[in-house]
Amino acid sequence: MDFSHAVVSLFHPLLSCCEDMEYVSPEGLRLDGRRAMEMRQLRAEMGVVAKADGSAAFEMGNTKVIAAVYGPREVQNKSQQVNDQALVRCEYSMANFSTGDRNRRPKGDRRSTEISLVIRQTMEECILTHLMPRSQIDIFVQVLQADGGTRSACINAATLALADAGIPMRDLVTSCSAGYLNSTPLLDLNYIEDSAGGPDVTVGVLAKLEKVTLLQMDSKLPMDIFEDVMELAIAGCKAVAKYIREVLLENTKQLELRRGI
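The structure corresponding to this sequence follows.
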């Protein structure tokens, strides 16, 4: 997969910032018992919001999110209408009880605005917006329980919700993170690993098209290590895509049973 356009700074000293704590045992086990290249358990359910056109709940380990899609429908603000494609809007939020942090995060804070933009841009890469001109698609995602990887979980939930709404897509877009702790590339970071201060990469991929639609890094990495971490995150994205296809197939079978097909 081509990620040659990614800009990566080469800086070795940062890699030692998280070496004091042992995140990977001599036996190769992480703090939650997983291997370095092992993902957390995935769970998903479609149609969880009755009044939405499409919805889904998605879990990556203890991280739990919900997504709801409304549209395509008439553009509410005519000044935002696009004549040759659909307008995609996204709103990300975290439930006040999602982290156990008593400090309430105000609605519309800078982090939520930035993540809303990231999710919107990622979903625009997969939605066939040109098939729905002069319309609007609203995507709402909320984190119910946060334990690392919330951004990826929201993208995965949004993909399922779009499919549930029957929105045409060129491919499934899925997301996963990977990091580098104790000189070891780690797949699908939980909160403790994500908070360790080490380099981590969040990737979004159109699985069948093998196209990277999202690449975010919070720290710097030497190019050789970056390539290993990036490939690990992409492998995670493909595993999520395989799981989502299974969920979609099972959901289709259930719909056929209800309709007596």
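Residues 177 and 202 are 4 Å apart (CA to CA).
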